[in-house]
Amino acid sequence: MDCRDMILSDDYIEVIVDFPTELLNIPQAQEGEYCVTPISNDLQIVYMQNPSPQELPLDRFGYRIMPKLYGLLRQDALQLGVPNAGAVIGLEAAGIRPVQRPPLSLLGNGVTIAFIDTGINFANEEFRDEAGDSRLIALWDQNIQTGRPPEGFFYGTEYGREELNEALRGANPYDQIPSRDEAGHGSAMASVAAGSRIGAAPRAELVVVKLRPCKPYLKQYYRAQTDLAYSETDILQALRYVREFSVPFQRPLVICLGLGTNLGDHTGSSALARFLEEIALDKSTCVLVAGGNEGNRRGHVEGEFDDDIGDPVQSAEVELRVGPGEAGLFVEFWGSLPDFYQIRLRTPGGEEIPWSDLSLRQSLSYGFVYERGRVSIYTEVVEGSSGEQLTILRFTQPSEGVWSIGVRGVGNVQSGTFHLWLPMEQFLGADTYFLVSSPNVTLTEPSLANGVITMTAYNDRNDSFYLESGRGFARNGLPKPDLAAPGVGVTTLAGEVTGSSMAVAFGAGAAALFLEWAVLQANRPFVSTKEIKNYFIKGATRDPSLSYPNPQWGYGRLNLSDVFTALASSSRT
Fold first, then answer.
1. Residue 351: exposed, middle, or buried by beta-carbon count in 10 A (0-12, 13-18, 19+)?
2. Are 304 and 438 in contact (CB under 8 A)?
3. What is the pTM of this model?
4. Average pLDDT over every residue of 75-81
5. Which residues have a Cβ under 8 Å from the Cβ of 503 and sit 6 or more positions away?
6. Which of 255, 256, 395, 524 has its CA 20 to 30 A from that of 410?
């Protein structure tokens, strides 16, 4: 079996490693039954046979090698309609419309914007130029296996500009290139950032990757209950692909990511976050990530022991409401250094799972006498990426009602703080939540990566913060998010859409315009994500009654016009 077959087969799992693959001791290595694909100098993806979801290599190699599950960062279902004059409201609020007009006349000429999402409806007029030709320079559909994959990759089909234009000249372009955005999310983001009529950068070139759905074993392991779930491995492959379209000082690149997850330590230590930080260091490149819509979801608890710090035993109780018909549930607990923690469970019927004993890495499974379902508890005292304690609770067919999660500090407790996260809203039932929760530290990964620009959403009709939007700071105190942009009822190609993915689309369009001015017009030719972030911060609109950086607003509301006003003022002094 070759690499292509292994990547596509549901009988093969994928792991992300940052060490020599020989250390995996893959049993079938002698027969060549595994495949290694490089992502960067430090990251590789390994595809190997899957014995069963219950025998994943987690216990042996740790949490960090497991691909995380990502979902779309829109809050509501698409309300289909036709783009109208309302589309310009967000462009005005973000200070984009003024710089599109003379004297700057920035439209994204010569800049490439990359979208890694649900694909794009490439035949739509929003993605064509004045001559009717495609503004896409490449489309990689990871789901179509009948054509040629990109060079250096093993799966999917790549369509170049010539193929796209040839298809557009036909009566039905999708007969020739059967790649559609059925979910509409990728097309909505692309139309806001770069639509020919309603977008921020209407002359930018586009590179699009349509992600394939994750393999069934990942959905089963993470107990996800949606088809719109994507593996970290395919996103990493997509990022490696789009990175190659950047030509420093000649073809600037903007990467716009509207995907997220609640999995991880919420400090930006995941493989995806680390790779995004690496790309963000590239010159002529800007990486932007949406902050998610988990702020009002009641899916996060920030706990602290009530007892006096220094007591030998301290404990707290967290109550989790499990809704009816919940097929499965995945809960992550993260402790804070230098403390040790233990977990205890009490079912709605009163049965208890005793305090978990600590070891370097262990997994235990429990059943019940009077309750249906099972619970497995996996613990790493020192998780490989963050260095802090992780405990995972995996529920199978949990009983409806209120579960109590006891948390106990062991020994001389110093910090006394801990966090629990439920999966993102679309990965579990709406009636499952923590009874007492915290809206802070609810930004989704990988938006907590230090080097990227993290965007949250606000309602530009009344300048109010969108309460569903994720909030900061990071679990380690890193100031995040960076900026807020319009994200409520945004007019897109697919109708009105709400969510932080719309905010990051505005941010991506603004970044494309800034790169046109900075790189292609040779005003700041060596610019990278960090500098662009700081320019945007200097021009951001701030409320004098608030302090910044702010857990909701970051450093303020995106205002591209005021960025140039600030630059003009500084040049006169």
1. middle
2. no
3. 0.95
4. 51
5. 290, 291, 455, 456, 457, 458, 469, 484, 485, 486, 487
6. 395
Query: Mean pLDDT over residues 491-498, rounded?
Result: 88
> What distance in Å separates the CA atoms of residue 470 and residue 458, rounded to the nearest whole number?
11
Q: Could you tell me if 144 and 157 are in contact, meaning their C-beta atoms sit under 8 angstroms apart? A: yes
Alpha-carbon separation of residue 349 from 157, 237, 345 (angstroms): 52, 46, 11
| Contact predicate 213/103, CB 8 Å | no
Q: What is the pLDDT of residues 185-201, one digit of tens each?
A: 999 999 999 999 999 99
Residue 209 tokens read as 């990757």
User: 376 burial class (0-12, 13-18, 19+ CB within 10 angstroms)?
Assistant: middle
CA atoms within 13 Å, Cβ hemisphere of 328 = 14
DSSP secondary structure code for residue 11 in this structure:
T
Cα–chain center distance at 318: 27
CB burial string 278-317: b at 16+ within 10 A, e below: bbbebebbbbbbbbbbbbbbbbbbebebeeeeeeeebebe
Determine the pLDDT at residue 309. Answer: 47
Q: Residue 112 is encoded by which pair of tokens?
A: 């490439």
Candidates 401, 143, 445; CA nearest to 270 is 445
**Residue ranges of domains in the chain, CATH in brackets:** 85-295+444-572 (3.40.50.200), 300-434 (2.60.120.1290)
Residue 446 confidence (pLDDT): 97
- What's the confidence (pLDDT) of residue 311? 53
Q: Which pLDDT value is given to residue 312?
A: 55
Task: Note the helical H segments in 169-300.
Answer: 173-176, 185-194, 216-222, 232-243, 271-280
Instruction: Please list, in sequence order, all residues whose beta carbon lies within 8 angstroms of the beta carbon of residue 361, skipping any fewer than 6 positions away.
Output: 59, 62, 379, 380, 381
Q: Which residues pair with 404 in a beta bridge?
A: 319, 346
Answer whether residue 301 shows pLDDT above 90: yes
Cross-strand pairs, 529: none
| 272 to 96, 191, 219: CA distances (angstroms) | 30, 25, 18
- Copy the structure tokens of residue 431: 């009636």
Question: Which residue spans within 155-270 are E strands per DSSP?
Answer: 157-160, 205-210, 230-231, 253-257, 259-260
Q: Is 322 strand, coil or helix? A: strand
Asked whether the beta carbons of 122 and 141 are under 8 A apart, the reply is no
Q: Is residue 82 very low, low, confident or very high in pLDDT (cuts 50, 70, 90)?
A: very low
- Containing 390, the helix (H) or strand (E) segment is strand 390-396
Nearest Cα to 73, choosing from 271, 297, 332, 265? 297
Confidence of residue 49 (pLDDT cuts 50, 70, 90): confident
User: What angle do the packed helices 529-539 and 560-572 form, to 10 degrees?
Assistant: 90
- Determine the Cα–Cα distance for residues 568 and 573; give it in Å rounded to an integer: 9
- C-beta separation of 555 from 537 below 8 A: yes
| Residue keyed to tokens 């991880």 | 264
* Cα angle: 254, vertex 258, 261; to 5 degrees: 130
Average pLDDT over residues 30-37: 75
Provide mean pLDDT across the span 221-241: 94
Residue 213: asked if its preceding bond is cis (omega within 30°), the reply is: no
Tokens 């599109």 correspond to: 100
